[in-house]
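FAQ
Q: What does a multi-component entry look like?
A: The components come first, one per line:
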Amino acid sequence: MRRFAAGLVAACMLLPAVPRCQTVVEEYQLKAAFLFNFARYVTWPESAFSGADGVFVLGVLGADPFGHRLDEAIDGREVQGRRVVARRFENPADAGAAQVLYVGISDPIALRQALAALARRPVLTVSDTEGFLAAGGMIELRTEDRRLRFDVNVDVAQQVSLRPSAQLLKLAKNVRGTWRER
Amino acid sequence: MSAELAVPVIRDSIRGRLRRVSLLASGASLILACAAFLMFDLATYNDAMARNLASHAEIVALNVAPALLFNDPDAAEQTLAALRAKGSVRGAAVYDARGRLFASFSREGASENSLLPAALAEGNGDQVDWSRLRLIRPVMAGSERVGTVFLEAGQDELWQRIRTYAVIVAVVMTIALLLGLSIAGTLAERISRPILALVATVRAVAAEKDYSRRVPAGSGDEIGELSDAFNAMLEQIQRRDASLQRTNRELEDFARVASHDLQEPLRKIQAFGERLREKHAGTLDEQGRDYLQRMLESATRMRSLVDDLLNFSRAASPVRMFREVDLDGVLADVLSDLQLRIEESGARIEVGPLPRIEADPTQMYQLLLNLLGNAIKFRRPDAPLSVAIRAEQAQGGEGRLCRLIVQDNGIGFEQRYAERIFSVFKRLHSRQEFEGTGMGLAVCRKIVDQHNGSIEAHGEPGKGARFVVTLPYRQSLGAV
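Then the predicted structure of the entire assembly, as tokens:
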């Protein structure tokens, strides 16, 4: 026990960049990673991948706080057997081509309009805008106790046949709605 | 003879040895079997444990992946905490992709536990030894490695199992050995019984000279064969012994009867010869008187021959009863009977104290008379005779022995004749030099034989002779 504890302490001291000390990792680097990781734990209907190339699109709508960090997070990786690409969208109507979409719109009215435009598309919408879930978004990123957490609105996701996995829901801070088998 | 067949002390009996051999054999095979079984079982068990732990580690790796990806150490620790149910797990840890500790679990009271950051680099590997199991499994998300799970379990269950085994083995061994002991005892008994019977018979034959004894019929094995051979041998000995005894008895009877029956006519020849010389010597001429004289001398010599023969056959007949004899008293009688000859020869006799022994007094008298008579007879004409008689104790096979030594400074003899002088009618000197029949020492030997003793002679020409008689104090064992 003592040695185990000593090992822990040693590990902490040798590696000061423990995840709990989050400030070291840049906020948007982490958020980019989260975007990518959501893709792992959500199942899309086959119809979502309409493009001939069948790539997995990680999109950003509106203001892009990531810059190059999103491209770094993707860096030629694959998810669900598909190559991942990053795309920026100006128009909410175009953003339906994305599978995971970061919505960088903070204005509530503009946000609602954008989400309404995407309502029928199997797009996992993610944002760190407060009240995103209330506005009809699916995943809201928040910082709590200096740690990045997220809430999930299962009902909204289910309307477009997106299926967040139980593992993801377990990690979510708050889950709105319940998953129902249709 | 019997002195050489003292009962030997058996340090290591056949029965005990057989029992030990069978116990050793069964014990050794039992231990070996138990050890092999134990090793096999423990190895199997250890393997199963390792596999069981590995599946736990893999489940943890699977479940902890999202927590790693979404940077949620609390969720990871919850996953690890599920390991608490697995009693042997002492500690576990999750590291992120960069090798930093992400979450950990350690059981209270666990000791000898440590994390191996260095081992994490290897990513995947098991360390299994007698004190602990250590497993390292990668945490994968798709084809990507997002972290590492480290799991350590104690081998307490293994040792508990070994302890249980030890108890079982001890119980089984005890029962098996007890069972083996009784079986070995029965087996040893069965094998050794004929051998012991053989030994008992051999010992009885040696001690009692009873050649009519037989070894009980044995089994069909080698010991039975040995018993049969021994019985056949005993039968031969018995037959030869009987015929020898018969021959001996016949010879002795003949000698006794002959000498006894010879005495009567001889006495008449002597008596009438004497009478002829006393009353009718005048009527004979010179030549006639010479004839008569020679005839009488021959008759005298024949008389002494017959007497000696009679003595010999008496000595040869078994002693009917031994009793306590004071050799000092016997020697005094002998000396007084030899008084005249001692004075004639001017001999000096030295007498040491002699013991009391169990013997036939008449034969002891004869023995000492013959030995002393010989010493006086075979003296040197040029030197005064000196004879010494003494006794000493000796140790023999069957207890204490008494040794009588008669030493003189007479003419002695050559050592190579030391055996021959004890034969009947064997003389080293002509009758003209020394009178006598050549029976004296033969009688001595007979007497000593009858007393289960021995006699030997040592001599040197011109220096003297020494006779050593060895007799047992007690005639209890082997007495005829």
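Q: Is there any commentary attached?
A: Sometimes. For this entry: Chain B has three domains: 1-209, 211-317, 320-480.
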